[in-house]
Write a structure and sequence with these properties.
It contains eight helices and six strands; from the N terminus they run βαβααβαβαααββα. With 205 residues, it is of the alpha/beta class. The relative contact order is 0.19.
Length: 205
Amino acid sequence: MVEKVTVFPCGGIGDPVSSVTRLAGYLLAEDLLPGRVELVSIPPVVTGVPDELRLVQEYPVIVLDGCSHRCGSNALNLVGIRPAARLLTPRIRSQTKHAVGRRRPYPETSGQKLAKALAEKAAAVALGMLEDESYAFETQRVSPNPEGLIDDTFDIERGLGYEEVQVGCFHCSGMCAFKLKDDPELRRRLEEEVAEFERLEDIEC
């Protein structure tokens, strides 16, 4: 088992999906598993902020990729860190039928529901890592990867050896296999959060 898990959302500038993945990260780290999940973002990691680098080296990372650019996976690969797990938003969107929406910096109701679906699946992965005694994570060390530059010629899927273990949820080659642990109480709290979002949106309108 591990003490903490790190969640690393997509940071796409100008794309509403990044707001969805960030909201999912906040739900996970602040509302569902506070103190057990740490939220980090792309800029501090690729620019070498020590506290952020420590988190992605010492704890398993769940990366939330927002779109086909796979910025989260590419950014981690750029610094030589392998994700413990990856959620791919387009795959989860196709399963849930929740649209990303068009609004930034905060998603509208459909995007909030998609963020909830991402957070729920990420929570199941995180709980598996945190509570499964057989889960063995080995710390990593940042090592700039010259083959990891974000460009159209690098196949991040093949490079990290991603294998889909559940719709939208991927295991990275070379990392310890994880189990997904469902928690009905976390799902109930997520439903309450989304209902509150919808209530506030109705008031604002």
